[in-house]
Amino acid sequence: MSLTRALNIHDLRQLAKRRLPRMVFDYIDGGADDEIALATNSARFADYQLVWDALVDISEIDMSTEIMGVKTRLPFLISPTAASRLFHPRYGERAVARAAKAAGMVYSVSTLGSVSIEEIAEICPGPKLFQVYVWKDRALVDSIIRRVQKARFTGLVLTVDAPIAGNRERDPRNDFTIPPRITHRTALQALARPGYLFDLLTTPKIRPANFQDPGRAFSITNYLNEQFDRSVTWDYVRWLKKTWGGPLAIKGIAHADDARRAVEAGADCVWISNHGGRQLETARPTIDILPEIVTAVGQKAEIILDSGVRRGTDIVKALALGANAVAIGRAYLFGLAAAGEPGVARSIDILETELHRNMSLMGCRQLSDLEPRHVVRPR
Ligand SMILES: Cc1cc2nc3c(=O)[nH]c(=O)nc-3n(C[C@H](O)[C@H](O)[C@H](O)COP(=O)(O)O)c2cc1C
Fold this sequence. Notes:
Elements: H1 9-19, H2 22-29, H3 36-47, E1 49-50, E2 65-67, E3 70-72, E4 76-78, H4 93-103, E5 107-110, H5 117-123, E6 128-132, H6 138-150, E7 155-159, H7 170-173, H8 184-191, H9 194-201, H10 220-227, H11 234-244, E8 248-253, H12 256-264, E9 269-272, H13 286-297, E10 302-305, H14 312-320, E11 325-328, H15 330-362, E12 375-376
Parallel strand pairs: 4-11, 5-6, 6-7, 7-8, 8-9, 9-10, 10-11
Antiparallel strand pairs: 1-12, 2-3
Helix pairs in contact: 1-15, 4-15, 12-13, 14-15
Bound molecules: flavin mononucleotide.
The site of flavin mononucleotide (FMN) has 25 residues, from α2 and α15.
């Protein structure tokens, strides 16, 4: 199957699987424990049914909106993901940032990104978010924030659903490390994917680009567990908001009380996420949580939702139920792994086309036409 024949995100996943050594594919594709949250995230969207308005003039569809204070052509954005050069060793985050810029959408980069803050800013001068974790080393976070400000990022995202790393069993089973370490198992997997191996061997070593890493291949679980501060509370959000000063999102909110706490602590955006089923196993699907969070803080803060989004109908449902925007993770990573920048562009194009088609079929000309009455969840 070629990229142009990939009709949907599931097809891109298949292409990614063919291109990547198993350990790398599994790092993207996998979830925590028995992967119940992972599976439920996407499956739950299907439990909601759509209702359309007939005979509406849909000759023009406008999908533009604002995300964290900036205008954007599309109501979905790139979610931050660690070390994207693992998935495409030559370009990694560069490919994603370029494709996002070309599509006029918001890009986010992870603290654990494998391309530097400054290089991302050069590639993507428009709207972009920087994601931070709760590190023990506040001086490190402070210095990163200064760089992010200097590079004119438009928003900061604090991820709070990963105080420790989730239990992703595919990774230790595959001897997965960053950068990939040569063991009997990984060597066999890599040899089976010569295109990837060539890129890996002919490009600089994959490592976090924004801070000093241990210098050796490390298991992401051990590394995060060493570096993250398990003692922090909402005061960290207040400190971060003061230090940063600009628009702040809290990513990984799972219920209305925490959404309220986030807003009280200074967040401008509540980002409902369970990290794509990679952290707490059997986490509640985000689409189920959305309505109570909209009721709690919808008038005071922006709401972004992610986890499990694979189809335009998933995006429509979240927007109709009150999200301002939807973030995508694996949906673009599969495209990146399949073919670099054109692959990410294909992911975005697939979701944009699906969203456009669905809004047309629903008789909704603009995002504000999408209302909760358009979504039904049969008991
Ligand atoms: C391979 C991978 C790495 C990720 N790394 C990060 C990260 O560094 N920071 C973060 O906040 N979220 C990270 N996430 C979570 C995503 O930002 C997002 O919440 C999740 O992928 C959404 O679920 P989906 O993949 O089903 O769309 C990662 C997700 C994946 C799949």
